[in-house]
Amino acid sequence: MKKFSISLLFSVLCTLLAGCSDPVDVLGKQKSDFVSFLERSHQPRLVPGEQVEEGTPAAFYTVSGDAVYRYIDIGDYYNPARPERPEVTADSWVTVTFRSYVFNNTVIRGLPDGGLTESNFSSVTPPFYANDPSFEPYFRMAGLTPGAWDFEPLRIDMRKGGIIKGLQAALLGCREGDRVEAYMTCNMAYGDKNYMYMIPVQTPVAVFFRVDKVE
After folding, report:
1. CA 70 from centre of chain
2. Coil, strand or helix at 12
3. Burial track 173-199 (b if 16+ CB lie within 10 A, e otherwise)
4. Residue 125: which of 152, 100, 97, 153 has the closest Cα?
5. Percent of the chain, pLDDT > 90?
6. How much is the pLDDT for 196?
7. Which CATH fold topology does 20-214 show?
8. What distances in angstroms separate CA 58 from CA 53, 73, 82, 85, 206, one per listed residue?
């Protein structure tokens, strides 16, 4: 009798067991989706950082870890005062205001400029977690019990972490005052953990944050 190869056995088991998937394929698909979204659907459309010519302002993204795609708001990045602002290093204390989203290959829409109303409530992309106080009215309209959410700024010791790997990687190199979008593959977010019973395993995540202070 011929012996089954390990790869064949794994393939058979994956066919039989619901939810089983090759992690390499999952990560590869998520990376491909991020690149496609950032270069085609994101507003403004972004280009890879290595394609930006020196002295030519452009909206671009960079990649760190495995894998975090980061966009620093073009207005912040090219602000003449930015080089003088404190930079986030591996030894910094950082205070941030953030919103976290499940990424599903669509544009993430924030609060309307004119304010939140019942008529435009459904147009806002719901974050699964946030400490941004401007979103408190949104959570109240969504039925959140007052006091159940913490809208205080998050203070992070970069030496100890205590945050998801993707956010820590995205923070490095940012400067005080930057507004940042970080799109991360599941292994840089919650991996195979079912976070708060709301985020399915192997879910790509986007974290939008503002660097309030760097110490």
Report:
1. 8
2. helix
3. ebbbbbbbbbbbbbbbbbeeeebeeeb
4. 100
5. 70
6. 58
7. Chitinase A; domain 3 (3.10.50)
8. 8, 10, 16, 21, 22
| Distances, alpha carbon 137 to alpha carbons 25, 79, 105, 181, in Å | 39, 31, 26, 22
pLDDT at 198: 72
Kindly report, residue by residue over 199-210, the tens digit of the pLDDT: 888 999 999 999
Strand 60-64 to strand 47-48: parallel, antiparallel, or no bridges (unpaired)?
parallel
Give me the phi and psi of 159, to 5 degrees please.
-75, -30
State the sign of the Cα–Cα–Cα–Cα dihedral 206, 208, 211, 212.
negative
Asked if omega into 169 is within 30° of 0 (cis), the reply is no
For the chain, the structural domain boundaries read: 20-214
pLDDT (tens digit per residue) in 111-133: 998 889 989 999 999 998 899 99
- Quote the pLDDT of residue 48: 98
What is the DSSP code string of 59-71? -EEEEETTTEEEE
For residue 30 the two structure tokens come to 């998520």
The Cα 126–Cα 123 span in angstroms is: 9
Q: Which residues of 55-80 are buried (b: 16+ CB within 10 A; e: fewer)?
A: eeeebbbbbbbebbbbbbbeebbeee
Instruction: Tell which phi-psi region holds residue 15, choosing left (phi > 0), alpha (psi between -120 and 50) or beta.
Output: alpha
Q: Are 90 and 122 in contact (CB under 8 A)?
A: no
